Amino acid sequence: MSNKEPTIDKIETALKASYGATVALRVDGRKLIIQLAEVKENQLNYVVHLAASLRWAIGRPNLEEYDPLTQKVWRKRSRQRATQAQRRDIEKAIGKRRAKKEYPEAYETAEWYEPLWPTLAPLIRALKACDSVELLQDGPEGISDGTAYFLTKQMIDWVFPPKERSNAKPV
Length: 171
What we know:
The protein is of the alpha+beta class. It has 2 domains: 5-74 and 115-165, no CATH class; 75-113, no CATH class. The protein has 7 helices and 7 strands. It has a 5-stranded antiparallel β-sheet with strand order 6-3-2-1-7, with helices on one face. A two-stranded antiparallel sheet has the order 4-5. The chain starts with a helix and ends in a 5-residue tail after the last helix.
């Protein structure tokens, strides 16, 4: 059992609580919040907040706003730029070799990172892979003792002080 296993177990216990369960922690020197929240009607996901506002651009490796920490704590997603049917139609019209030469983007895959985790187990595995995980004990009540705590302005201000947020670029 490694040094961070008890911390991971506390985080897992706190997040297994009901809707609104929230944990504030420090991962690799950066503060973040994990919250069980409703993202669609009747769909709950674990949301990992790296900044006071949820900026999707920090999960795109090809953009300048990209944050490398998203690679560790956000979920990797990918999608082919063209469907198999679209590629088949192009190949049928101009041939496979010419299609790959003239439309190389049709054979590429786009990759990005999302802050939404449908289940807890893969999120916990991602946290175990991080170098250091520390539960923040001295924040607002309810963060570290396993009770449900709703993400409020008070908690956002505590984890991400307004001075740090003021220079964040809106996306």
